[in-house]
Amino acid sequence: MTTATGSHTVLRETRWSDIPTLAELETELFGAHAWSAPSWWAELAARPRRAYVTASVAASVTASVAGAPDGVLGYAGVDRGGAVADVMTIAVAPAARGTGLGRALLHRLYELAAPASALLLEVRADNVAARALYESEGFEVLTVRRRYYGDVDALVMRRHLTDPTDSSAEQEQR
Ligand SMILES: CC(C)(COP(=O)(O)OP(=O)(O)OC[C@H]1O[C@@H](n2cnc3c(N)ncnc32)[C@H](O)[C@@H]1OP(=O)(O)O)[C@@H](O)C(=O)NCCC(=O)NCCS
Q1: Domain count, the chain
Q2: What is the Cα 22 distance to its own chain's centre?
Q3: What pLDDT shows up at residue 70?
Q4: Residue 153 located in a structural domain
Q5: Does residue 3 fall inside a structural domain?
Q6: Is a pLDDT exceeding 60 seen at residue 7?
Q7: pTM score, two decimals?
Q8: Which residue would you say has higher pLDDT here, 75 or 67?
Q9: In this structure, is the dihedral angle defined by the CA atoms of residues 31, 36, 40 and 43, taken in order, positive or negative?
Q10: Residue in 43, 52, 75, 134 annotated catalytic
């Protein structure tokens, strides 16, 4: 990949062997709300309804990258249960942030969500970086769940993946 994510980064399907690293990163990033290894097993077992992507340092780059255990730089997943898909998770290792990787992972979720016509997600109202990313991608706030995270609200956001005024797009999905 030679985009803003860096020439040595690849986006690939998440593997069972990623689970220990993902669980470790989750604990670092989400603390008490982290998905455990058994949660990851359940998520990957739910494929193909679920789809997960891992961003990692390309195998050709053997030197370990600071902050990227086993070369994993980030991950994201989507639930594609019907016309509307849901972002299950998206995260980038702290050392790899601010280089376009979060946006690249989100773009991959758009592809994985097809043929859903819209993508929903839930974000803490105080998550400045994530909100800025979603807003810059055209997500709009659909609902506010007051004090969903203790003292902090949750925002449910939606982005159309197909043109809602395009009736031919709707017809193709039937
Ligand atoms: C949210 C997250 C995935 C963004 O990943 P990232 O790789 O740093 O994001 P990118 O480099 O692709 O940046 C994309 C856009 O996000 C916004 N953004 C990223 N970091 C930001 C920050 N610290 N402050 C404000 N906006 C920020 C900007 O709009 C940026 O666009 P720009 O570079 O054109 O200004 C990352 O911060 C993260 O993993 N956070 C912890 C986990 C998390 O909160 N996940 C979301 C749960 S809903």
Answers
A1: 1
A2: 13
A3: 76
A4: yes
A5: no
A6: no
A7: 0.91
A8: 75
A9: negative
A10: 134
82: CATH: 3.40.630.30
Q: Is 95 in the pocket of ligand 1 (CB under 6 A)?
A: no
The answer to whether position 149 is within a domain reads yes
| List of residues 6+ apart from 111 with CB closer than 8 A | none
pLDDT of residue 167: 63
Domain extent for 94? 9-172
Task: Give the single-character DSSP code of 64.
Answer: P
Q: What does the alpha-carbon distance between residue 148 and residue 57 come to, in Å, rounded to a whole number?
A: 35
Residue 125 lies in a domain: yes
What's the 86 CA to ligand 1 centre distance in angstroms?
A: 19
For the CA of 89, the closest atom of ligand 1 is 47
Give the mutation target among 103, 149, 152 for probing the ligand 1 site: most ligand atoms within 8 A of CB.
103
Write down the pLDDT at residue 3: 38
Q: Is the pLDDT of residue 170 over 60?
A: no
Q: Which residue has the higher pLDDT, 15 or 5?
A: 15
Catalytic: 134? yes
